[in-house]
Design a protein that fits this description.
The protein is of the alpha/beta class. Helix content is 49%, strand content 16%. It has two domains: 43 residues, no CATH class; 112 residues, Oxidized Rhodanese, domain 1, CATH 3.40.250. Strand 1 and strand 2 form a beta hairpin.
């Protein structure tokens, strides 16, 4: 048994030292990255590359702004309360709960505007995708989902109406 404890002590001390070195290096790298102007933003999901999935085109905040500037219709898929508290300037609201009624009220605009961009709260919000799919099923082409959503739009200081958080 003494041999076992002797072996354990001889392994434990170097392992502890190794863990301390790795922890110190990780901390140094994190601090360096934080203060580096070209550092990686580890807390922000990386920008979504323009991609198409099941007939829906997913676009970045920059691309959404380009479409906005060229006259695209933006549709806010968040709740009515969220829309009223602030939304992309000129956007209309179509929610899951009131989809049919709101769609009918805006159907002519949706179908005649060449490009329609949907958004909701942020990267992991499924509402925009859901509403975009439903509008696409009604026959609309050129349907896009802006994955950064309201949060990213406000962060970029793009045009808004109402409170901007």
């Amino acid at each position: 048994m003494k041999v076992f404890y002797s072996i354990l002590r001889s392994v434990y001390a170097p392992a502890k030292t190794g863990v301390m070195i790795v922890a110190a290096c990780t901390a140094f790298a994190a601090v360096f990255n934080f203060f580096n102007p070209k550092g990686i933003d580890v807390f922000k999901p990386q920008a979504v590359l323009e991609t198409e999935v099941n007939g829906l085109k997913y676009i970045s905040v920059e691309k959404a702004k380009d479409y906005y500037d060229s006259g695209a219709l933006l549709i806010d898929a968040r709740t009515t309360g969220e829309y009223r508290s602030g939304h992309v300037k000129g956007a209309i609201s179509i929610t899951r709960l009131l989809f049919e009624r709101q769609y009918k009220a805006h159907e002519k605009t949706i179908m005649t505007t060449p490009n329609v961009v949907f958004y909701c709260n942020g990267t992991y919000c499924p509402k925009a995708t859901d509403i975009a799919k439903r509008v696409k099923l009604k026959g609309k082409e050129h349907v896009m989902v802006f994955t950064g959503g309201w949060d990213e739009w406000v962060k970029q200081r793009y045009p808004v109406e109402g409170k901007s958080k």
